[in-house]
Sequence to fold (410 residues):
Amino acid sequence: MDYKVALRTMSVLYCEDEVLAREQMVRILSPKVGELHVAEDGKEGLLTYQNRKIDLVISDIKMPRINGLDMAREIKTINPKAGIVLLTAFDQTKLLQEAIDIGISQYVVKPVAEDKLFNGINRTLDYIIAEKKIAFQNNYIRNILDLQSNMIIVGDECAIHAANQPFLEFFGYEDLSDMIKSQNEKLNNKFQFIEYQYIDFMDWFLEMISSRERKREVFVLEGDVNKKFTCQVSSFENISGRFLVSLTDITHMNTVKGQLNDGDAPEVMELENFYQNSDLFFHKGVTEDFLLVIFTLYNSDLIVIDGGFDKRESMRREIERFVLTNITDKKMLTKTESDEYLMIVNVVDLDMATHNFSVMKKKIQERVKRYHKKTTANLHYIRVSPEEDFRKAVTLARQKHIKANQSLYK
Fold:
């Protein structure tokens, strides 16, 4: 590196309270630096640093009002990567240890010899230029990431370190520091992985990077928005343990302007069609037990029709779409004459199904409460064998469900 050329691009702050020493140093530095700012004590030096763009600080330690070490500590608070060279006397060894503790490694013993001064400056320039290169690379990478339409997050098993603008905007963060500060509280339970349906993960990012060998699909919930993404994870060759997660929105494959297409999922059929289709279902040689799921929306008649817009239908549509989208092993869904729904679901693991339906019931209840404080929902299921009379099983299940939920009616 040509230090003389590099120094001529730098803005330098020099702090010294002794007049003769200050004048001598100004004569040495002025022709060699890009811009020189001079302060007579630490307080003036700190004010100059706060109001100017300073690359390098050269300061005496013993000064009135604020000494050089306290000024350096404040500067490091403002900019932990600030480049600082301290000028010190032989009897200030204890202060030098404090300087090292706050991140200052370069000092020159007074009276200052010009060659030793520039040796200290040059070593600090190495640090400053290296940090500028890193900052430039980080900004360059951030600009590239922000230009991507997909959401991108960078992190490790301990924390998230970066996220692009589409990610921040989707979740309503002001900036990266806002996201890092509140990520655990705000982002937990936003990500729901399809193969696990509605298990609430305590750490969604760890779940993502644990499956870095394959692509996954995930639902991302934010307010009333339920979007579907593919999740792809890659690692950094030169940084062990750090991962880049890319979330690509594939909602448009299943929706048009937020509404389900006719062929995207099983329709909500009439009860008689439900019975007819279930007969076909059994005639296909089904040998395994299945679950008959019943869930009911209660007190929807309390929801007011606002300006001709029937919010009850909006609520029903939202819940139907929620169920059709997120129960992966469903076969059929029907709505009876009331706000009661019947559904056939394959069962592989009953314990897992029990947990998933419990979480799903909670999610449905949260959604219907937004329409009226007294609207609610409940969900039950029974295990049915293919040998049973299906219609009788439905009748019995409905009777038990109605009896168990009498208290939920207004």
About this structure: The chain has three domains: 3-142, 148-253, 264-408.
